[in-house]
Design a protein that fits this description.
single chain; alpha/beta; Rossmann fold; six-stranded mixed beta sheet; 12 strands
Length: 316
């Protein structure tokens, strides 16, 4: 009886110890701004970081819809569940300062993709969206040497990443014969995104150029132009690396695309948060900005770029 009791106590102690060890793992969360294939690369980056951070539980979370209130509830749930740090692509940082500050007062908060510099976030890791917009302007100037009028399409016009890309492009084409005459938002609604292109084309049948500022916008532009028989007649300038976009670049129906590196946001961002939690504050630069460069992809380098993407997603 005594031996049985002792054995039971030992088993119980072992189970408790195992549970304690499991609970000691800190949780790090990457919260995106909405459902999009764009974030698959970030997921791959998070997965790589998980392999190198066995003492942490890493996750990438999608809000049910691309709305600031929904994203905020998701982060509040994560905090209530014991998350140790959060990295977020803020849906609408301008109107969410107080909400983001609330999260940042409870756990270390980092931003990515779309910054919220007026909040208490620790640091931003991601692209310079202004520089990315300038690169889009360079593609436009090269593709439209005689000038032309462009219409842009974007998911969240109020987000910093959208605003900065648009302003960056405008600064590059300023003084030229290339104009960005309108930008239409869709709140990351795929149906609405396509309808925006259809409506813009119907209202401007002689438009020279269309710009897709979010990853899913260029594919919707491509689809509408193909369906209307205008593919190849309207210059298309893209952002990011959707397979349809890269296919259009390869065939010459899309002039070029400005690509970010969400893989590195996921990978470097998770490692950054882990180091910060471990007390290494030197990982945060004085300006609180960690910029991962963007680059322009055209027919000359699209094959090599796509091969790299496939390798990363497959874990190669």
């Amino acid at each position: 009886m005594k031996l049985g009791l002792a054995s039971a106590l030992l088993v119980t102690a072992a189970l408790l110890a195992t549970g304690a060890v499991a609970q000691e793992k800190k949780q790090l969360a990457f919260v995106v701004n909405g459902a999009s294939d764009f974030w698959k690369l970030a997921e791959a980056g998070v997965k790589k970081a998980q392999d190198e951070l066995p003492n942490y539980d890493l996750s990438l979370k999608y809000p049910e819809q691309a709305a600031a209130a929904v994203q905020q509830r998701l982060m509040e749930d994560l905090v209530a569940g014991g998350v140790s740090a959060i990295m977020v692509s803020a849906v609408d940082p301008k109107s969410s300062t107080d909400s983001l500050n609330k999260i940042g007062s409870q756990v270390p908060l980092f931003t990515t993709d779309s910054d919220a510099p007026d909040t208490n976030r620790i640091a931003y890791i991601g692209s310079s969206n202004t520089d990315a917009g300038k690169q889009a302007g360079e593609i436009a100037l090269k593709a439209l040497p005689e000038g032309g009028k462009c219409i842009g399409f974007v998911g969240l016009p109020g987000a910093d990443n959208a605003r900065e890309r648009i302003e960056g492009m405008k600064s590059t084409i300023a003084g030229s014969k290339v104009e960005l005459i309108d930008v239409r938002g869709d709140d990351i609604d795929q149906t609405r995104a396509k309808r925006n292109v259809e409506d813009a084309l119907a209202a401007n049948p002689d438009i020279d150029c269309m710009v897709g500022f979010y990853s899913y916008n260029p594919p919707r532009i491509y689809e509408v132009l193909k369906e209307s028989g205008k593919l190849g007649q309207v210059t298309v300038i893209a952002f990011d690396e959707d397979p349809i976009t890269l296919g259009g670049v390869r065939e010459g129906t899309i002039a070029g695309t400005v690509v970010q590196d969400p893989y590195e946001w996921g990978y470097q961002g998770m490692k950054l948060m882990a180091k910060y939690l471990e007390g290494d504050k030197s990982v945060v630069p004085e300006n609180k900005l960690i910029i991962v460069p963007t680059k322009m992809i055209d027919k000359s380098n699209v094959d090599a770029f796509e091969a790299e993407l496939k390798s990363r997603i497959s874990g190669g």
